[in-house]
Amino acid sequence: MIQTTSIALNSKMVSALQGETVKAVCAQNINETEGLAITLRRNGSSELCYIQFGNYTFFSRNCTDLMNLEYNKPTKGVYAVMERVSVKQSGVYSCTLDKILPPPVRMLSQLHFSLTVSALPVVEVSLASSSSIDKETTLTCRAWDFYPGDIQLSWSKDSQLLTNSTRNDSLFHNSNGSYSYISNLVVSKHDWNEFAQFSCQVNHSTLKMPVVKNLTLTQSGKDKCVLCIMTFLGGTIYSLRSPVSNRKYGCKIQNMISKCSACFIFWLQYLVLKTSSDHHWVFSGGNSDCEYGAVYSAE
Known about the structure:
By secondary structure, the chain is mostly beta strands. It has four helices and 21 strands. It is rod-shaped. Residues 103-216 form the Ig-like domain.
């Protein structure tokens, strides 16, 4: 959580990042010390915070959550303090200083400040779907919870910017006032190769430098491939010890085609099975469910 504080002294414009604490001048040069009240409002709506004070002491306070008014005796000023501000709190605020005692109530001063709350984008890149290495794979880059809505997103492969690739981008306005951006990149067989690294770069006005997220297709599914390989090797060793005609060993791997190289599997099969010269092995490929295996038959 962001814990820094934005302080606006004698300024009508206040900028902050979502999650920060904002402290802005609400009233200043208070010379009278008795029978005073200050009301804080946003966009002319109902009061957010109301205090009564006298002799430099608050004796009545009514403020909403995470909102407060503080009096500073040395500076003779009152400050509006807003904790963990959100994008929704952007707007124009007014602070009205009234003399309530003795009646009638009369306004002594009124200050305004404009608050703009920005939000850093959260970025994530993932493998959305895959049909086959021979066909295409879809990568997704998401940036969410950012404000303002202007954002730049680009894709690259092995540090080379992709400009002619098929992509589908959408910008969404969230209920909390922030924005989300989703970019789907379709990677064809021509663009895909073993150990290719795809990168999503996001740039936003709140960032000191762009955010870059990387995804390597072959490495992303390594753990699942290991399980398949172990299963296949176990079945192979068992069959070599006790040959049985027409025994089929296979394993299903979810998203095999997008995450593991089929050639790598066949290469392992070759290394293990070439030691058996008195048997004939016919390698079987896979369908859309990524089922790979080998058919054993005695000769």
